[in-house]
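Job type: complex structure
Entries:
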Amino acid sequence: MTLADLAAAGALTGGAAGGVCFRTGPFITRLETRFAPMLSLLVRFYGETEAFTTPQIVNFNIALHRPLGPRRWWRAQMRFRIEDTEPFEPYPLSHSYPLFEWGLNWSIATRSNHYLMLHAGVVERAGRALILPAVPGSGKSTLSTALAFRGWRLLSDEFGLIERPSGRVMPLPRAIPLKNRSIDVIRAYLPEAELGPRFDKTRKGTVCHVRPPDDCIRRQQETAEPAWIVFPRYVEGHPTDLIPIPKSLAFVRLAHNSFNYRVLGATGFEQLRALIGRCDCYSLTYSEFDSVLPALAAMADGGRQQGP
Amino acid sequence: MDPSPRTRWQVAASNRLLWAQWESDYSVFDGGTGDTHLLSELPAEVLRQLSQGAMTEAALTAKLARLCEVEETDDWMRKIAGLLAELADIELIEPIGP
């Protein structure tokens, strides 16, 4: 059964334990909310994902609820709760959807230490994964989106989940939150991409989510072999420059990039050593999709192509 | 403390070191502090030698000179002394009594 099936049956807010249980990659999330616009967007973005009405082993037990009192009517707010804690200040009601997505990200990043978690976009082609680790603002999500609609399968725009002990990359496909200028860039470059509503004046500026392609949702439990680690950086006007870097440097950069490398201790070191050992490592500077997409395709096909 | 010539150096007692070798560098995980260090050839060799047993600075300097096929000049001795101080600063190694 899919989330869309549940919605069609009018069962989104019901279920045995209340709320709706659905799959995101390896995780089951239970979401309890009665806020209809929130549920409507959830179904729009994740309609093809597996959903459950019977009790499940739930990884993230999340509730979005409106505070009682005057705030219910005056500058209405939404609160995010996971288990018994509320890790964030309330958001404006109109930002409920971004709050859910960010809250789920936070929940994954703080509660999933059975994976080595990289802060990275990940896409796959012919069973091999391209990992794009980067800091916020480097264009990671924008580049991941372009790749996801140009011959690669999106595994994640945010999390590189490295499975233990296989060392393979576990997908976690989600709606991709484009921010500020990236929204118009993607709208112009990928007219086939379905974008949700714009959320203005959020804590990260204007945000607009891209609906993940159905194929990546259907194949969200199909892992991939890590093959390339590319550290991307968007620099306006810069030609595409894809340069091999030493693995020792890649190790240092990935250790700093990971959400939980230090938490994992010796296990994290062993996982990172194995990951880097099986990947080719590059630094990428780019500004144009028309140049960077062929360069990455050439890299994946066995050659390496540099911009003019 | 300023180590005396009889001071021996050893890998810090609480450390469990894990190594990853790359092209010409090494990543070393220190189980004692939870830190990961990137070492080039010479400091990595210092650490490797001390992993095999405690040594005085003089003995280590002479052994490394033989391994690297260099003269034991003043510059060389200063270089090894500097590396010992740096490795001690990041708690990978420690002195043990005279």
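Summary: Residues 8-91 of chain B form one domain. Strands of chain B lie at 8-11, 17-21, 26-30, 36-39, 55-56, 93-96.
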